[in-house]
Request: fold
Amino acid sequence: MAAPKKGRRPTGAQGRPGRALAIILIAMVALTAGMFLSKQTTPRLGIDLAGGTSITLKAKSEPGKESAINETNMNTAVGIIDRRVNGLGVSEAEVQTQGRDHIIVNIPKGTNEQQAREQVGTTAQLYFRPVLAFADGSPAAPEGTPSPNPSASGSGAPKAGDGKTSPSASPSSSATSQGRALSEALKAPAAPTPSPSASESKKADDTKAPSPSASASASASTPATGDEAAAAALQAKFAALDCNDEAQRAAAGAGAKPEEPMVACGQRGTAWGKWILGPAQVNGQDVKDAKGQIDPQRGQWIVTMQFTDKGADKFAKITGELATKQMPQNQFAIVLDGRVISDPSVSQALTGGNAEISGGFTQQSAQDLGNMLSYGALPLSFSEDSVTTVTAALGGEQLKAGLIAGAIGLLLVVIYLLVYYRGLAFIAIVSLLVSAILTYTIMSLLGKGIGFALNLPAVCGAIVAIGITADSFIVYFERIRDEIREGRTLRPAVERAWPRARRTILVSDFVSFLAAAVLFIVTVGKVQGFAFTLGLTTLLDVVVVFLFTKPVMTLVARTKFFASGHPWSGLDPKRLGAKPPLRRSRRTGSAPAPVDAKEA
Reply:
């Protein structure tokens, strides 16, 4: 009889179950420790379970731009709002269109809920405009009444790039130069980015302009041109503007076109100021990236910006032109949605494609501005149509109903396993428990790491996964039973059944994962939660079956209870229809004894 070859594993080899069990045990301990270290011991809940705010935004049609409210612009707005809100770390924020001109934004209850609400409808139209004049936010005093000192409204405009302050222009200097500056700006070509440097060609003796009263009398005696009339109208609007009034602040910059001068309000320190601004030179589309961060040298919050190549050229040109002028016309105003948020002065051309906005930012305001500039301006203006608060009590009821449904499903699976598989059912139940631990810890960590939030469809996905995982156990158990029916004992049956069961399990889980991936890609909103959970639990099913169920089955096959085919083991050969004796019980020495020569 030929001896078996050394080094070749015989059929039915048991492998190394201890190593696989050690791997999954280490993974469970590591995930659990990570969950407690991150202080996120429960999965984050979506708006339908934890409560939150649902905001309905309505697109506003502007005169002459009624056709702007279309499917393309609405979908663009949805994408920008979604990136803004989720960029703040708000988990499971849902943004979708409703009808022709409405957008629904669902924000789960959380630390950034209010911050996100403030940003969802902000248009974030950003422009860099040259400053033509500045005064405090109060209306101009009647003629003959001394004007207040605008320096009381703030500490002056911060310089771009260095954070230093320079004194504000006085009312008299602004008043004497703004008429000429406005006329020159209005004479500039009507283009999105006209040059504001026309004032550089004025003669040196023009710096001593007549007083406001002299200018007014001259204007009255000389017929005004179209540009001069427009400049006078803008000056009158500027003089009458009261930026301390909220309604006037909101209306000041509304409807201003980028290629035209405008008046605008803004804050310097704690007080309001007002500006006359020239045509826009750079806009938000020229900003490639922006973020709020703290300046380590000055210890204050700033917003850093990186321009596109085209934007860098524009910015270098305008700052080079402004650097040759006097206060306040060496400043450029950064205008966001018609309001001045900063007006740094320029002492030299800023090249290199990078800039920073400084002065008066808190951490939240700097990060908010950087977030809005990074993700772009909305193509439409929106107003809040309605705001609905979803209470946590309603979410708690839904979560309770989902958990009850899951418990009922799990109980039915356990009863079926116990009735049909008896002792094998305990292996399946422990495997389900391991899968549940892995799923729970990973979902908790994903809530902290990527903002994943568990919503009601995701709970449904987890319930469906119970059946998928149990199906993998059933496939393996039935393969083992098939081997026993063929007359094999348990230990070789466990090993011979594994290759065929493994192939079936992998194919089945691949189809489930593919369906979940396709569903996640082609759907939006809460359905993605269902797809994500289904895909995650499908992957974990493979991990549990390979690293836990199979090794445990190998170990229990060595125990007397299962190996002897006890009636309650679920592997009783008689109950399965196998005819004893089994193949492995046949002794190789049971062959008939050789016939004695004498007997022959």
In short: The two ends are 25 Å apart (CA to CA). The chain has a mean pLDDT of 74. The CA atoms of residues 520 and 528 lie 5 Å apart. The chain has 17 helices and 17 strands.
